[in-house]
Design goal:
40% helix, alpha+beta, 3 domains, Aldehyde Ferredoxin Oxidoreductase,  A, domain 1, Aldehyde Ferredoxin Oxidoreductase Protein, subunit A, domain 2, 19 strands
């Protein structure tokens, strides 16, 4: 029925492993993936409060932090479109100070199911490096002393043996605040520092293997729903042509031409040389072949190589759009070879490319404006456009070598440390991705109200504002955006709990998902009912954030976006108008049933949140 019926609980402090039953009542209200994991984290907080431990007492690197790898009812179900993903959550993020959340593709999620589990919950922390071996017969905690210090690729090769491996690299071991959990070598649960949480627990890797298969309850209904969904994906120009041909980097020229591609740490949002790092150039000069995650019909992944020169790198993958932007356009490095190399190092060492590139760009502006002195850099030249310095900065960050110890903190702490906090282009401590709200107003409201921080995939209003799906909105208008942000955030919560690739939503809506999920689970799930589940998940996450002290004051954008007009491009002269932004935010709160950025008791009761 889409669920395996078991959750694996591992306590590293006690060196113990046990199984519990998947609570189907929770599953009906929260699906799986992000939603189910959030409910488990909330229950941990409630237990801590009974013991006199408040949310703010939880240390991101402490024994009390909990790390969860969760699948959903779609994960690993053959025929459910783009269902090769899993969601990772931790009670507290080292980068943002609130709940940590990340998502990844590849095949690790399905293999959790094939081993017979819906989720893996990691409690406590080990004194010595360990890894977890999970299969159909159960799980075992094993020594990872010989693996500690290895990079992601070497760790994966040492452990895979026909299964799937999720692991950390040196960045996670060294507690870099934005370290990723990497699976299947190049797939990343990238954001909010979940890799550092894993490193703090001395958990080097999780290996999953097995042959169990989740089956739909209503096989014939599912077959028909799957057929209809796949036909829609094939008919959609983005999922059938754009993404397969050019990958996500097809957006480089699209967003740049809309005047919304941040350049030089967001000093601009248009770059006349952007085509030099575009998806079109990547496909023409560096692409070896397409790669697809498990069960994916789109295949947007890129197997790439740089055949010669200073940045030569063979048999790598990517970079994706966000990585090209952060490591390239944001730092003004227009040598795509260097961006590919830097992206490869982020995968090899285990770091989030968005925060890495954004933090380097922040450091470059700090250096440009004199806040960072030459002597601080210990020989590096962090000038905008310096390709060698970009690559140098990546490995220095993973090992906290020299100036890397400051970069490892993320841009918010870096900018504060050097006396210019306004130069961190982040929200709630997490760096914003590759869309400038001065040119695309709706995404600005989403950044501000996104629970995990500056995040585009929480509510991807770029779809209607730029690509015209499911309807075309004027990106420069404020009107009507609050409603769209809420819709996208709720629907995204559904997709991340199902757990599916968000690219499916270019072609599939809540009605399609309701049909598919009804057939898989055997439950009668309506479109409106599914959206209510998404709303419940989003509100529960916000409630947890409130316990960490986040409220309306934190639903804000960097000052630069409100005061510095774009100097060129089609959005020249645009800012995010402070008054209109506040009006938009208050309309959003009203639609949400929130006061001061917090769900009211009435809203929580309506959504049956305990």
């Amino acid at each position: 029925m889409g669920y395996m019926g078991k959750i694996l609980k591992v306590n590293l402090s006690e060196n113990s492993v046990k199984e519990t039953k998947t609570d189907m009542e929770i599953a009906k209200k929260y699906l799986g993936g992000k939603g189910y994991a959030l409910r488990l984290l909330y229950d941990y907080l409630m237990e801590y409060e009974k013991l006199g431990i408040s949310a703010r007492d939880v240390d991101a690197f402490g024994e009390e932090n909990v790390l969860i790898f969760a699948t959903g009812p779609a994960t690993g179900v053959v025929g459910f479109p783009e269902s090769g993903r899993y969601h990772v959550m931790a009670l507290r993020s080292p980068l943002t100070g609130s709940v940590a959340s990340a998502n990844s593709g590849g095949k690790f999620g399905p293999f959790i199911k094939f081993a017979g589990y819906d989720a893996i919950v990691i409690e406590g922390k080990s004194e010595e490096p360990v890894y977890l071996d999970v299969n159909e017969d159960g799980a075992e905690i094993k020594s990872a002393k010989k693996l500690w210090g290895l990079n992601v690729f070497d760790t994966t090769k040492a452990l895979a043996n026909g299964g799937s491996v999720a692991c950390i690299g040196p960045a996670g071991e060294n507690l870099v605040y934005f370290a990723s959990i990497m699976n299947d070598e190049h797939r990343a649960a990238g954001r909010t520092g979940v890799g550092a949480v894993m490193g703090s627990k001395k958990l080097k890797a999780i290996v999953v293997s097995g042959k169990k298969k989740p089956e739909p309850v209503k096989a014939e209904e599912f077959k028909q729903a799957s057929k209809e969904a796949l036909e829609k994906l094939k008919a959609n120009p983005i999922t059938s042509t754009g993404l397969p041909k050019y990958g996500t980097a097809v957006l480089v020229n699209v967003i740049n031409n809309a005047g919304g591609l941040p350049f030089k740490n967001w000093q601009k949002a248009y770059n006349e040389k952007a085509d030099e790092i575009s998806g079109e150039r990547l496909a023409k000069e560096f692409l070896r072949k397409r790669i697809a995650c498990w069960g994916c019909s789109i295949g947007c992944g890129r197997a790439t190589e740089v055949k010669e020169g200073f940045f030569k790198i063979l048999n790598t993958e990517g970079p994706e759009y966000e990585s090209i932007w952060a490591l390239g356009n944001d730092t003004a490095v227009m040598q795509l070879e260097a961006v590919i190399k830097a992206n490869h190092l982020c995968d090899e060492l285990g770091m989030d490319t968005i925060t890495m590139g954004s933090t380097i760009a922040c450091a470059m502006e700090l250096y440009e404006k004199g806040y960072v002195k030459p002597e601080d850099l210990q020989g590096m030249d962090l000038s905008f456009g310096n390709a060698s310095a970009l690559v140098d900065a990546v490995w220095r960050t993973a090992y906290k070598a020299g100036f890397g110890k400051y970069l490892a903190l993320g841009s918010k702490r870096l900018a504060e440390l050097f006396g210019a906090p306004e130069l961190s282009m982040s929200v709630k401590g997490m760096e914003m991705p590759a869309y400038d709200p001065r040119a695309i107003k709706g995404i600005g409201l989403n950044y501000a109200t996104a629970n995990r921080g500056g995040c585009h995939v929480t509510g991807y209003t770029i779809a209607p504002e730029i690509t015209g799906f499911p309807t075309k909105l004027d990106p420069l208008k404020y009107e009507g955006k609050a409603e769209w942000v809420k819709i996208f955030q709720d629907f995204t919560s559904v997709v991340n709990s199902t757990v599916n690739c968000l690219f499916s939503t270019f072609a599939l809506g809540a009605g399609d998902y309701a049909k598919l999920l009804s057939a898989v689970t055997g439950w009668e799930i309506s479109e409106s009912g599914l959206m209510k589940i998404g709303e419940r998940i989003y509100n529960l996450e916000r409630l947890i954030m409130n316990k960490f002290g986040f409220d309306a004051k934190d639903d804000a954008l960097p000052k630069r976006l409100l005061t510095e007009a774009l100097p060129d491009g089609v959005a020249k002269g645009q800012v995010v108008d402070p008054q209109k932004f506040e009006e938009m935010k208050q309309e959003y709160y009203k639609l949400r049933g929130w006061v001061n950025g917090m769900p009211t008791k009435e809203k929580l009761k309506e959504l049956e949140i305990p």
